[in-house]
Amino acid sequence: MKTYQKLFAVLATALVAFSLSPGQAASLDLIKSFEAIPNSGWTPCDPTIAAGPSSLVTMVNSKMVIFNKQGTKLFEQNLNGAGGFWGAQGGSAVVAEPWVIFDPGSGRFIAIAVDHGTAKGLLFLAVSKSAAPVSSSDWHKYVLNRRGTHQGPNFPGVPTCPDDAKVGVDG
Question: Region 67-73: what's the mean pLDDT?
Fold first, then answer.
């Protein structure tokens, strides 16, 4: 198992344990590990994970995989190209720098990535339709076109200056 795969498993276990409401007891049968996303071929692979009530959404450069909390794979899709997760929104062969969170207030996952290929300057956003997405069609998908800006978006979800904090990208 690759280092980032072990990191996914450890983070998933921690997120499950710490996502309980005050007064709720954690189950002692939490998963220890499971095979997450195999080597994506990218260095670094930019792993990210979010835990919802019943599922885990994991992403690396070029791929999204959804698991249930027992480690069973429910969904897998490349991010890249016309057949990729953001293909209908114009994703090129290089969709990368993913970021995903679970918003407990809305009960939805929010995923974001940027295009560094022929569609450089596109920022992709997806919001799950429920707390348990299991297919590509279980997401509302959007694209923000920032072509023509100096270098296009970079590092989504990690704002580094006040002007970018509203869109959550660097650049």
Answer: 90
